[in-house]
UniProtKB/TrEMBL annotation:
MF term (GO), any: D-glucose:sodium symporter activity
CDD domains, per the entry: SLC5sbd_YidK
Family, per entry: Belongs to the sodium:solute symporter (SSF) (TC 2.A.21) family.
Subcellular location: Membrane
Record's protein name: Solute:sodium symporter family transporter
InterPro entries linked to this entry: Na/Glc_symporter_sf, Na/solute_symporter
Source organism of this protein record: Metabacillus mangrovi
Annotated Gene Ontology cellular component terms: plasma membrane
Length: 610
């Protein structure tokens, strides 16, 4: 990169990031004076900001580089991590979100303290903090630094060593991200995420389009034809036993992992808890599922394009996406691309930092040490803890460059220490009334020991290694732990059944398109798998097989049928169900039996806990 191009890239990058920072500041400067404003954006987030923030919180530079590298190396089977997230997203939007908003919760541990006890609250906070501080947060910054280094020759540009480049990038990204989270609160994070998300969608979609033109020698359609007719096995998303994501894991452990991420991971669900009402919260959650369907296009197809041009000649699979960027991205877009790339990294970091500080302030400091703390002091405690956590992360993240080979596989497996027990506790908590708090504590301790023994322990201690994909281990332990909790609930049940208390602070009328949009989303997930399957683009004898169009039309017909029924009959029943969830026993006694035809979709319930 010439000196002139370098300065142009840096200046346009700084300009874009400056605009994002200014808009975020202007839109959020008056919303951080109290705890609801700081931690939940004043409960004023609409569906657009929720969806945009969820998108960029979920996507990162590591995925841009890593998923394209996996597609270059094997096939599209790794898209399952992204596309099948639609299933837990729908469960979150339709079932769990009305519970969270109806209970007026700020954090997931707070919800669990109401369902079980303060001990369970502390257990989950500890699990979250250990995962955030020592795994998720440092790995986000380090992987982002690696992505920037691969896409831009930072050592060569600035004349510094590789190690120095890692430290500079990590601290640069970390400080910017921390500033949003610590001083701006959730609303500043959500706004900046949305603006960067728009840039990511535009640039991310433009790259494969330019890649097709490059592959086709200047003709877009020729590039598409080349991709779909040669090496068609690269477009297969149906993973076999030898792939890192076998197809069977989609219906077992992957659902558990994605359900944890989208329905109980604090730094994801906190955006939805800041929704201005249930309808906007559902809209934001479900729309984010449609965004996930774009992942194969701009996070995997580019890797396949590079394979068609270079074969297996690249030194590292992670060079696939940087190679394509260097070939096709115009210089005038390089600065915006760098800004969006950095935005994707620090958006994930600032979201995690904001949520960790929120949990410490509300679930540790306020709950255990100072229940009557003022909003001003609570915000200050959160900011100091966020600053401390940021500093710890900034020192830990660069040290990952000295870790042994296989670090990323280790990190991905390490999340299994906390995601499975937390989602098991959440689901048992909302689906049962008599399971006691002791059951949660038993399975938490059991899981940590059992998971370690299966993944590493037996090999390290006894020389015996379990030959089983860790995603299947998720499903096995989840089933065992739910069974343990149900057995304890049978042997030693709660003395009184748990009753959900409605304390809704926002309007609890469902989004009128929630059911139909969910059905459409599931249909599009099925169609995506049909497109990238042996009867779709992975068909060897032609562009697609004779079964392709009948399968697509069949799925479309089923979706239209169920969408019609949802609008005609199910919407009112669903709204009635949500309304009944907001009625406490005291209210039901006062009102008498709920009349079936009161059309609760048009009624606002604002019951308070007595």
């Amino acid at each position: 990169m010439s000196a002139g191009n370098l300065w142009f890239t840096l200046l346009t990058c700084a300009l874009f990031m400056g605009i994002v920072a200014w808009v975020s500041y202007v839109k959020s400067k008056n919303d951080v004076s109290d705890s609801a404003g700081y931690f939940l954006a004043g409960r004023g987030l609409n569906g657009t900001f929720i969806a945009g923030s969820l998108l960029l919180t979920n996507l990162s530079a590591e995925q841009l580089v890593g998923l394209n590298g996996q597609a270059y190396r094997t096939n599209l089977s790794n898209m399952a991590w992204e596309v099948t997230a639609a299933i837990p997203i729908i469960i979150m939007g339709l079932y769990l979100l009305p519970r969270y908003l109806g209970g007026n919760f700020t954090t997931l541990p707070e919800f669990l303290s109401k369902r079980f006890d303060e001990g369970v609250r502390l257990y989950t906070v500890i699990l979250f903090m250990l995962g955030y501080v020592f795994v998720t947060s440092p790995s986000m910054l380090y992987s982002g630094a690696i992505a920037v280094l691969k896409l831009f020759d930072v050592p060569g540009i600035f004349g510094i060593s590789y190690e120095q480049s890692i430290w500079v990038i990590v601290w640069g990204i970390g400080i910017i991200g921390a500033a949003y989270a610590i001083f701006g609160g959730l609303k500043a994070v959500a706004i900046s995420d949305t603006l960067n998300g728009v840039g990511l969608l535009v640039i991310g979609t433009l790259v494969p389009i330019l890649g097709f033109i490059w592959l086709g020698g200047g003709n877009f359609l020729d590039g598409v034809k080349e991709l779909s007719t040669n090496h068609s096995d690269k477009l297969n998303a149906i993973g076999g036993p030898e792939d890192s994501v076998p197809f069977g894991t989609i219906f077992t452990g992957m659902i558990i992992a994605n359900l944890f991420y989208w329905a109980s991971n604090q730094y994801v669900i906190q955006r939805t808890l800041g929704a201005q009402n249930l309808a906007e919260g559902q809209k934001g959650v479900i729309i984010s599922g449609f965004y996930k369907l774009l992942i194969p296009l701009f996070m995997m197809v580019p890797g396949v394009i590079v394979f068609h041009k270079y074969g297996n000649s690249l030194e590292s699979v992670d060079l696939a996406y940087p190679t394509l960027i260097a070939e096709v991205l115009p210089t005038w877009l390089s600065g915006i691309f760098l800004a969006v790339l950095l935005g994707a990294v620090f958006s994930s970091f600032n979201s995690l930092l904001n949520s960790a500080a929120t949990m410490f302030a509300l679930d540790v400091y306020k709950a255990r040490f100072n229940p009557k703390v003022s909003d001003k002091k609570l915000i200050m405690v959160s900011q100091w803890f966020g600053t401390l956590l940021a500093l710890i992360t900034l020192f830990i993240a660069p040290l990952l460059m000295y870790a042994p080979n296989g670090l990323w596989d280790l990190i991905r497996k390490f999340t299994g220490f906390f995601n499975v027990p937390i989602i098991a506790i959440v689901l048992v908590g909302v689906l049962t009334k008599y399971v006691p708090a002791i059951a949660c504590k038993v399975i938490t301790i059991f899981h940590v020991i059992a998971y370690y023994m299966i993944i590493w322990g037996t090999d390290q201690l006894f020389g015996f290694k379990w030959d089983i994909n860790f995603i299947y281990v998720y499903a096995i332990l989840f089933a065992v732990e739910v069974a343990i909790m149900l057995i304890i609930g049978t042997i030693k049940p709660r003395s009184t059944p748990f009753e959900f208390k409605s304390r809704a602070a926002v309007e609890m009328i469902p989004w009128k398109y929630a059911l139909s949009s969910s059905i459409l989303l599931l249909a599009l997930v099925s169609m995506t798998y049909i497109v990238f399957s042996p009867i779709g683009l992975a068909y060897a004898q032609s562009i697609v097989s004779p079964y392709f169009w009948p399968a697509i039309i069949g799925v479309a017909a089923i979706a239209v049928f169920f969408m019609f029924w949802s609008v005609k009959f199910w919407n009112t029943r669903y709204a009635d169900y949500v309304a009944k969830q907001q009625l406490n026993k005291e209210d039901i006694k006062k009102r008498g039996k709920l009349v079936p035809n009161i059309k609760p979709a048009f009624v606002k319930y604002t019951n308070k806990e007595v």
